Amino acid sequence: MTEDVTETVAERPGPAEGDGVRTPPLRPGGYDPADYAPLVLRSAAETGVSPLLLMGVLHNEAYKPHHPLLERLWQWWKPDASFGIANMHRATFEQVRRAHGLDGRWEDLRDDPAFAVHAAALHLADLDRRLPERRTRRYTRDELLALGYNAGERNMRAFARGVPPGPMARSYLRRLRLDRHRAAEALTTGAGSPGSRTRGTR
């Protein structure tokens, strides 16, 4: 890790100051993916992925704090940690960056929720193009894409052929299914509220 973990957000203005997107809160338990519903809807429309899938991924990836300072500390403890509210690993981001000519860096995911959501949407769209045409009926298309987001394209294609997922992938799929109602509600209430705290995108 090249950055000093003692660096404060005040020293490095985040998206809350720059483009109106709310920075994830510092308080544990204060983060709610619903705050980013407008970003989800916009990026889903731009990339052609399901907004419910994208919001479901944000819910599944909400297991750790996403404030930029806490993510720096998390990376100090675990150097190969993922970044941003969509929890993207460096190798995955670099694939997306090269495929779509993104200007941002992997480190920008932790400071810019709009960029993180958009990168996740692009990755899901890439996975969608790589799904086999013939696949098992055990999972929906969105479920396979979520499994691909979690376990990688190679595993996603195996699951699509009928190979059973391992324990971690099964747990990810179970959470996705359990949170489906919450994700749908977040899209409805978060996007339609005139007082929404999330107002912009990158």
Helix and strand arrangement:
Elements: H1 15-18, H2 37-47, H3 51-60, H4 68-77, H5 90-100, H6 108-111, H7 113-129, H8 141-151, H9 153-160, H10 167-178, H11 180-192
How large is the count of helical segments? 11
Low-confidence runs of at least 5 consecutive residues: 1-18, 193-202
What would you call the shape? globular
Give the helices and strands as they follow along the chain.
HHHHHHHHHHH
Q: Please compute the radius of gyration using only Cα atoms.
A: 16 Å
* SSE class: mainly alpha
Sketch the major β-sheet: none
Specify the helix fraction band.
40-55%
Task: Describe the overall structure.
The longest helix has 17 residues, at 113-129. Helix 3 (51-60) packs across helix 11 and helix 8 runs antiparallel to helix 9. The protein has 202 residues and is mostly helical. Mean pLDDT is 82; it is low at 1-18 and 193-202. The protein has helices spanning 15-18, 37-47, 51-60, 68-77, 90-100, 108-111, 113-129, 141-151, 153-160, 167-178, 180-192.
Kindly summarize this structure in a few lines:
The chain has helices at 15-18, 37-47, 51-60, 68-77, 90-100, 108-111, 113-129, 141-151, 153-160, 167-178, 180-192. The chain is mainly alpha-helical and 202 residues long.
Kindly list the characteristics that best describe this protein.
mainly alpha, 11 helices, 55% helix, 0% strand
